[in-house]
């Protein structure tokens, strides 16, 4: 048996996750419409105040991306049952590789999720265009950070009852820096302040999440 | 020696499942494990598969102690067929096998070839969820042919297999046992299934290997 | 008198659970702190309300101490794998959530008359509230896992990951506040704290810390007793799992 590099294994696993998503449509046909409904309901509750909605728009987009994006990361279609976990272990997939594969898959799906949600937010809220260029780096950076933290929470809550609710509770509070960074760049651009510090913040969060994931993966190997 | 278990005890969820269990499996040996429902047969297989770490006692596989490095080294040499087939429901049989092939650095054609060997080439593009229990079992057997393990662990492998497929199990078992340095452990509650196939039968009762019956 | 006292076993149990010296010390510390808090002078601006500080500040301090203990205990568990560290982490997290809740509630009660609001988006407040949620998640995770080893491992990992993110959370919230309009009107009076008040505050912190140690130790002892009970039921010649399954005895099968 030839030795497969861990990165290749992780990419193979991510490909498997994406294929499963294509078959089940959980992220795009369930979570994304749910997020769109949330964006739709806020104006109904707040009132059809166009300038107010334009101000709220970017913030609500990011809140929906983070809260509903967590649901993408704990989607049931990506769950490995005990039998699958056993096979993966026995073909030499380490927990770190499994976590990396899940994080890669999550990141791609979250990029797609943002691409679906963004036009909805744009149409419903007509936000000011100021600072939109900052979204170009921010969108993938948030996808990476949330994808990694989501993969971690997914492994921590793997096989537990109530995982679909527990996972989001574990992730949401620690994604606050991502939320502040993502909304901060737009605020900074609007008030003519430098936006790059927020970018640095989000990059730091991504790095911290990746390092933590790499450190803790081996502790999550399910052995009594 | 392929595997050696010494005074193994396993507690799970605050219940003792195996107690003071010792078992040695020699190269080329086919061992049948008998026992009533819930006697700990499957747990024994999971211990042999390095998936459960014993509460106490020692396990040696292929002459290695199972510390972190040892586990990593021996795992690719173990093939486990559990109660339920380890297939992703929403992948086709071919995709399931190709996934394993790519993870161990084998070409996709090998995956297709082993599917043909177990008689599933015409069902290769069917989703696993749409396959019968017996088909899933055959696909799992195909995985064992693909990964070519040195220690094959089969849990109730005959369950759901039609008469046509039973010789397939015999064939897989003989192929493995004939390979250099390999051995095979079969678990069943039906002695008749194992009698012709195994060199030796052991019975798990009260958490230990109680009776050894040469065949 | 040699008649057996019916309350004796109860007292013995209470002593075994709570201990003797620590409860006495904690009670003394609380009494002293309470006296000092009541005897300290009222604040020039806030009047009697300032006495809430003697609960709010020590509660917040204890909460942070508790989370620190949980983090360290989790790390030591991952290193040593001894159940006692998991018990310490769990007990400390429970106490931490309680004291965080207390600090936030007292803060709200204090904030309403002094600042006119129950809640303000001060960085410290936001971080504290987020810690509260993080450790509610931690406790929810613990409840969801049956197997003690799996529970210890997963909660230790989550505890470390979550705690490691806290500085980033705090920093980002701090930054977020300074870039928005500063809450100058909502700031409490300058912390030029008088001597009497400082003494009372330090005594309160000591009392809360003693209470925290008592709570954690008691909780650990109870958990350990529970585990010991399970182990006592396990060792010896009791049946293994498989012995629970016997041959069916329906007439038809005979």
UniProtKB/TrEMBL annotation, chain A:
Membrane topology: Multi-pass membrane protein
Pfam families: CcmB
Annotated compartments: Membrane
InterPro entries: Cyt_c_biogenesis_CcmB
GO CC annotations, alphabetized: membrane
Keyword check for Transmembrane: yes
One MF annotation (Gene Ontology) recorded for this entry: heme transmembrane transporter activity
Keywords, in A-Z order: Membrane, Transmembrane, Transmembrane helix
GO biological process, one term: cytochrome complex assembly
Sequence intervals crossing the membrane: 27-46, 52-74, 103-126, 132-153, 165-186, 198-217
Family: Belongs to the CcmB/CycW/HelB family.
Protein name, as recorded: Heme exporter protein B
Automatic annotation (TrEMBL), chain B:
Annotated ABC transporter domain residues: 2-215
Organism superkingdom: Bacteria
Cross-referenced InterPro entries: AAA+_ATPase (IPR003593), ABC_transporter-like_ATP-bd (IPR003439), ABC_transporter-like_CS (IPR017871), ABC_transporter_ATP-binding (IPR050763), P-loop_NTPase (IPR027417)
Gene3D superfamilies: P-loop containing nucleotide triphosphate hydrolases (3.40.50.300)
GO cellular component terms listed in the entry, alphabetical order: plasma membrane
Subcellular compartments: Cell membrane
Tagged with keyword Nucleotide-binding: yes
Gene Ontology BP annotations: response to antibiotic
One GO MF term attached to the UniProt entry: ATP hydrolysis activity
PROSITE patterns found in the cross-reference section: ABC_TRANSPORTER_1, ABC_TRANSPORTER_2
Membrane topology designation: Peripheral membrane protein
Pfam families: ABC_tran
Keyword Nucleotide-binding: yes
Keywords: Antibiotic resistance, ATP-binding, Nucleotide-binding, Transport
Family of the protein in this entry: Belongs to the ABC transporter superfamily.
PANTHER family: ABC TRANSPORTER ATP-BINDING PROTEIN, ABC TRANSPORTER ATP-BINDING PROTEIN NATA
Name of the protein in question: Heme exporter protein A
Source species: Pseudonocardia ammonioxydans
From TrEMBL, chain C:
Keyword list, A-Z: Cytochrome c-type biogenesis, Membrane, Transmembrane, Transmembrane helix
UniProt entry tagged with the keyword Transmembrane: yes
Domain Cytochrome c assembly protein residues, every copy: 27-180
Domain of life: Bacteria
Cellular localization per UniProt: Membrane
Membrane spanning residue stretches: 21-39, 59-79, 91-111, 123-144, 156-176, 196-216
PANTHER family registered for this protein in UniProt: CYTOCHROME B_B6 PROTEIN-RELATED (PTHR30071:SF1), HEME EXPORTER PROTEIN C (PTHR30071)
UniProt protein name: Heme exporter protein C
Source organism: Pseudonocardia ammonioxydans
Lineage start: Bacteria, Bacillati, Actinomycetota, Actinomycetes, Pseudonocardiales
């Amino acid at each position: 048996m030839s030795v497969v590099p861990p990165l290749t294994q992780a990419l193979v696993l991510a490909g498997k996750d994406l294929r499963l998503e294509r078959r089940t449509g959980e992220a795009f046909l369930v979570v994304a419409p749910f997020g769109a409904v949330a964006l739709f309901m806020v104006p109904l509750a707040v009132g059809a105040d166009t300038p107010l909605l334009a101000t709220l728009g970017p913030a609500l987009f990011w809140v929906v991306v983070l809260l509903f994006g967590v649901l993408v990361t704990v989607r049931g279609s990506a769950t490995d049952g005990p039998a699958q976990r056993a096979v993966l272990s026995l073909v030499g997939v380490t927990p770190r590789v499994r976590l990396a594969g899940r994080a890669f898959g999550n990141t791609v799906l979250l990029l797609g999720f943002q691409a679906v949600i963004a036009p909805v937010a744009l149409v419903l809220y007509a936000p000011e265009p100021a600072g939109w260029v900052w979204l170009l780096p921010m969108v993938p950076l948030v996808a990476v950070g949330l994808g990694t933290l989501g993969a971690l929470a997914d492994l921590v809550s793997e096989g537990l009852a109530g995982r679909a609710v527990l996972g989001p509770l574990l992730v949401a509070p620690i994604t606050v820096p991502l939320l502040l960074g993502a909304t901060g760049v737009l605020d900074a651009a609007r008030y003519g302040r430098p936006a790059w510090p927020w970018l640095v913040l989000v990059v730091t969060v991504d790095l911290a999440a990746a390092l933590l994931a790499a450190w803790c993966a081996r502790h999550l190997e399910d052995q009594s | 020696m392929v595997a050696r278990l010494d005074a193994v005890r396993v507690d799970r969820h605050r219940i003792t499942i195996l107690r003071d269990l010792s078992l040695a499996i020699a190269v080329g040996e086919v061992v049948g494990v008998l026992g009533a429902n819930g006697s700990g047969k499957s747990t024994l297989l999971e211990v042999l598969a390095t998936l459960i770490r014993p509460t106490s006692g020692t396990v040696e596989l292929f002459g290695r102690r199972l510390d972190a490095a040892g586990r990593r080294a021996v795992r690719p040499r173990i093939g486990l067929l559990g109660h339920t087939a380890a297939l992703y429901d929403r992948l086709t049989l071919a995709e399931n096998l190709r996934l394993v092939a790519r993870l161990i650095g084998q070409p996709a054609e090998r995956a297709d070839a082993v599917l043909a060997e177990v008689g599933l080439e015409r069902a290769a593009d069917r989703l696993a969820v749409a396959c019968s229990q017996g088909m899933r079992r055959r696909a799992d057997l195909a995985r064992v042919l693909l990964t070519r393990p040195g220690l094959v662990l089969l849990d109730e492998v005959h369950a759901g297999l039609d008469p046509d497929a039973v010789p397939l199990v015999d064939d897989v078992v003989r192929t493995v046992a004939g390979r250099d340095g390999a051995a095979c452990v079969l678990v069943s509650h039906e002695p008749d299934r194992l009698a012709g196939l195994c060199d030796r039968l052991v019975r798990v009762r009260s958490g230990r290997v109680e009776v050894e019956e040469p065949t | 008198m040699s008649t057996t006292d019916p309350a004796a076993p109860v007292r013995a149990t209470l002593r075994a659970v709570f201990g003797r010296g620590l409860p006495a010390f904690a009670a003394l510390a609380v009494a002293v702190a309470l006296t000092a808090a009541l005897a300290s002078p009222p604040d020039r601006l806030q009047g009697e309300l300032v006495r809430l500080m003697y609960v709010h500040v020590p509660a917040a301090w204890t909460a942070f101490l508790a989370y620190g203990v949980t983090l360290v205990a989790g790390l030591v568990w991952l290193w040593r794998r001894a159940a006692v560290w998991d018990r310490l982490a769990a007990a400390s997290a429970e106490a931490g959530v309680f004291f965080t809740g207390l600090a936030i509630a007292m803060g709200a009660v204090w904030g309403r008359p002094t600042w006119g609001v129950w809640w303000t988006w001060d960085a410290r407040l936001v971080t504290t509230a987020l810690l509260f949620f993080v450790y509610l998640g931690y406790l929810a995770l613990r409840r969801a896992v049956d197997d003690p080893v799996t529970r210890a491992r997963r909660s230790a990992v989550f505890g470390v990951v979550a705690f490691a993110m806290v500085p980033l959370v705090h920093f980002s919230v701090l930054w977020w506040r300074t870039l928005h309009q500063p809450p100058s009107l909502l700031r409490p009076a300058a912390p030029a704290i008088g001597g009497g008040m400082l003494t009372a505050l330090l005594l309160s912190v000591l009392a809360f810390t003693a209470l925290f140690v008592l709570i954690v130790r008691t909780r650990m002892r109870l958990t350990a007793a529970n585990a010991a009970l399970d182990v006592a039921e396990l060792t010896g010649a009791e049946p293994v799992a498989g012995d629970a399954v016997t041959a069916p005895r329906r007439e038809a099968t005979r």
